[in-house]
Design a protein that fits this description.
The complex is a heterodimer of chains A (589) and B (202). With 589 residues, chain A is mainly α. Chain A contains 16 helices and no strands. Residues 1-12 of chain B have low confidence and may be disordered. Classes of the chains: A mainly alpha (589), B mainly alpha (202).
């Protein structure tokens, strides 16, 4: 295992572009993988929405390829919403937010030449590829893909509820994807702890790296939980064991389906934060970069993210208020869930104070960062209704929940990912994304997205349950149909806006304007090197002298409002000799 | 240090691993063990919860697999941890000749696997297949299969270590890989002891 990225540049096509151990190539692989699955999962969302607005009418254009007579059948509808969730979370957002930018940014931002375990990094991507292949294959098996929802609750997900290999393959895919995430997590944690450049103290780390660090901790600790839960589910389905099959459901059953719900949400709640913490990290940096001000309360932001990381592990019970949880336990979970909004609020205030009276540069990454604040605000505030037992009993399993979690973990994470794509595009590919089309993309994403999920709050509050194939069968829901139509139209517009992004991305990637080395004028280490980044990242391992957000510091010479982290501020003490690069022999190439 | 002087150093030309490299590799392993421990904890806690729901334990009509065989298997696995620890310890203190101790670990691990197979057969032939009605079969096969998958991984890693030691790829100049294999194997051992307590003691 090579440790500081001192592996020679490969020359063969396979080593260079396919089985590469270079963190930048792997990051881009994760990115394309994430984009491809976001497109598939997004198309599934369009089909779900079409069915909800116009039940029984053929899906336009593509319907004939996928559905008998072009109409989504009830079984296919179940598969659609199950796989939409699984794909978006495990195969779309996770690879994009954590895989792509984690791999690409961590070594560059901490001043290293590669990840600490480059081979493990490569394995992590190809394991994910296998997981994705299994998930895709599960859609094509004779009895159809998984139909038990992305949560896969037993007994629906055991053979009592769903026959065929689709559900089994789904569980196996989730397991394999989990293994891939754990590999990534081990790599990120060890890299951040061990490979920081001289002078890159913990308090000089960009907040992006902090976000990814906390996410990695959650990945490493909680993906094994879903892994073990999936092992038991596969054993139940394939070998006829009875871990989740109760005696009331099958002869000889001795298990407990609620056990699965506990295991799933012990993982599932941290998973929400696995997706949102990197996005928080990115935007905490971007808001400072584009407000030309230091991030307000850097240490407090880090502390709040740490608090969220810890609290996320002890609130999972709020997903299970309706399972007959002991009221005392339920109240404890309610209280803990309420407490998690305290560090959440601290983050909000820090972001708003970062923007406050800054010299704002309204670039596309800045717009998307502000978008995160907005949609996470909406999602977070509605979360309070779901954390309160008395209102949750009523709102449970309605579209209110769907609107809430889409705004928090889906829309916020997606906006964070888009901010990252627009921001790091110059460093990744050496070209700049078109700003005009970027802004079009932002507004045509943000406005329809708000309409989609806010109308869901209304329909959910009016009692519309999730996962129904056709609400018009239910008399009291017929009056809500016009709301569903509005939601669907907004969703179609939202989908169309992503086509704008795809064109912009492809055009800018290959024919776009060449980027300068530091187009955004920010000081973090990745911008000290060339665009696109050379193979070894840095000619010399950089020596860090200041924090990531030294904006508008009056001591900066020459009238600039920013300096690189490698620059020494006048009047600041130089780095102690013990941290000089000469003391780091492992770095010398 | 006499042994180090009498045995020719087949790896003297290989670059020596720095303390920094060693810490990097060890930290990665520690993080992995934390992750794996979470997975094991989930299975064990699930087992204890499910066991608590049963009216009687072991359920009526279930005859536990042979306790003496399980005890011997446990003893052998614990012994293999000692031989492995001794091997790594010798390497760290500069003794190059550890092939015998390493091979002993491998053999003890293989015998343990044989006894594990015997335990499964003992239960299986008594009419308790995994799909038999009841929690005991589910839990016993499920958890020991999970453990066996890690025993197999551990044995493969031990083979890799043995080859590496024989060819001089690992040795006194590079101990982190063998130390990591040993850490993995020790935790295979720990998980087995937990399972043994779960099924044969409690």
């Amino acid at each position: 295992m090579s440790h500081d990225g001192i592996h020679p540049e490969p020359t063969s096509f396979w080593r260079k572009h396919v089985f590469s151990v270079d963190h930048k190539v792997i990051g881009k692989q994760f990115m394309w993988f994430g984009f491809a699955w976001l497109a598939i999962g997004g198309m599934m969302a369009m089909m779900i929405r079409w069915q909800l607005a116009y039940p029984g009418t053929p899906f336009p254009v593509l319907g004939d390829f996928f559905f008998p007579g072009g109409v989504v059948s009830p079984e296919q509808y179940n598969t659609l919403f199950t796989m939409h969730g699984t794909i978006m979370i495990f195969l779309g957002l996770t690879p994009l937010l954590i895989g792509a930018f984690g791999n690409f940014c961590i070594p560059l931002m901490i001043g290293a030449r590669d990840m600490i375990f480059p081979l493990l990094n490569c394995l992590s991507f190809w394991t994910l590829m296998i997981g994705g292949a299994v998930a895709f294959y599960s859609l094509t098996v004779p009895l159809g893909g998984s139909e038990a929802g992305w949560t896969g609750y037993p007994t629906l997900s055991t053979t009592v509820g769903t026959q065929g290999s689709g559900e089994t393959l789904w569980a196996i895919a989730v397991f394999i994807i989990g293994v891939s995430s754990i590999m990534g997590g081990i790599n990120y944690i060890t890299t951040i702890v061990r490979l920081r450049a001289p002078g890159m103290t913990w308090t000089r780390l960009p907040l992006t790296v902090w976000g990814l660090f906390f996410t990695s901790i959650l990945n490493v600790l909680f993906l094994p939980v879903i892994g073990s839960a999936m092992i038991l589910l596969v054993l139940d389905r394939v070998f006829g064991t009875t871990f989740y099959v109760p005696a009331t459901m099958a002869e000889g059953g001795a298990g407990d389906p609620i056990l699965y719900q506990h295991l799933f949400w012990i993982f599932g709640h941290p998973e929400v934060y696995i997706l949102i913490l990197p996005a928080w990290g990115y935007i905490s940096d971007f808001l400072s970069f584009f407000s030309r001000k230091p991030a307000f309360g850097y240490r407090i932001t880090v502390g709040a993210m740490a608090a969220v990381t810890i609290l996320s592990a002890v609130v999972y019970g709020h997903h299970m208020f309706t399972t007959g949880l002991s009221p005392m336990l339920g109240e404890s979970f309610m209280l803990l869930t309420m407490i998690i909004s305290v560090p959440g609020e601290i983050l909000f205030f820090n972001w708003l104070h970062t923007i406050w009276r800054g010299s704002l540069r309204m670039t596309t990454p800045m717009l998307f960062s502000m978008g995160v604040i907005f949609v996470f605000g909406l999602g977070g505030l509605t979360g309070i209704y779901l954390a309160t037992i008395s209102t949750d009993i009523y709102l449970h399993d309605t579209y209110f929940v769907v609107g809430h979690f889409h705004l928090t973990m889906a829309a916020s994470a997606l906006f964070g990912a888009f901010a990252g794509v627009y921001f790091w595009m110059p460093k990744m590919f050496g070209t700049v994304l078109n700003e005009f089309w970027g802004k079009v993309h932002f507004w045509f994403t943000a406005v329809p997205l708000t309409i989609v999920f806010c109308t869901m709050f209304w329909s959910g509050y009016a009692g519309m349950p999730r996962r129904y194939y056709d609400h018009t069968y239910v008399e009291y829901l017929r009056d809500l149909q016009h709301l569903n139509v509005i939601t669907t139209h907004a969703a179609l517009l939202l989908g169309a806006a992503q086509v704008v992004f795809a064109f912009n991305f492809i055009k800018s990637r290959w024919f776009g304007q060449k980027a300068t080395d530091n187009p955004w004028e920010v000081g973090t280490l990745e911008w000290t090197t060339a665009s696109p980044t050379p193979y070894f990242n840095f000619q010399e391992i950089p020596v860090v002298h200041c924090g990531p957000h030294e904006f508008s510091n009056p001591n900066i010479p020459g009238g600039a409002d920013w300096i690189f982290q490698t620059d020494v501020l006048p009047g600041e003490p130089a780095l102690p000799a013990t941290h000089a690069p000469a003391a780091e022999p492992a770095h010398s190439a | 240090m006499t042994a180090a002087q009498t045995i020719p150093d087949i790896a003297s030309t290989a670059p020596r691993e720095s303390a920094r490299d060693r810490t990097n590799a060890r930290l990665g392993m520690v993080v992995f063990i934390m992750s794996w421990a979470m997975g094991v904890a989930v299975l064990v806690v699930s087992f204890l919860v499910l066991r608590d729901r049963q009216p009687a334990w072991p359920p009526e009509g279930v005859k536990l697999p042979s306790l003496p065989v399980a005890l011997v298997a446990t003893g052998l696995l614990v012994a293999s941890s000692f031989t492995l620890h001794r091997a790594v310890d010798r390497l760290r203190r500069g003794f190059r000749q550890v092939n015998g101790l390493w091979a002993a670990t491998l053999i003890l691990g293989l015998v343990f696997s044989g006894l594990q197979y015997w335990l499964w057969m003992d239960l299986w032939t008594a009419g308790h297949q995994p799909w038999a009605a009841g929690m005991f079969e589910s839990a016993f096969y499920g958890l020991t299969w999970f453990h066996a998958a890690h025993v197999i991984s551990g044995l493969l890693a031990l083979v890799v270590g043995q080859i590496g030691l024989a060819t001089g790829r690992y040795g006194t100049h590079k101990t982190s890989t063998v130390a990591n294999i040993a850490t993995f194997w020790h935790f295979v051992d720990v998980v087995w002891i937990i399972l043994f307590v779960c099924f044969f003691v409690l």
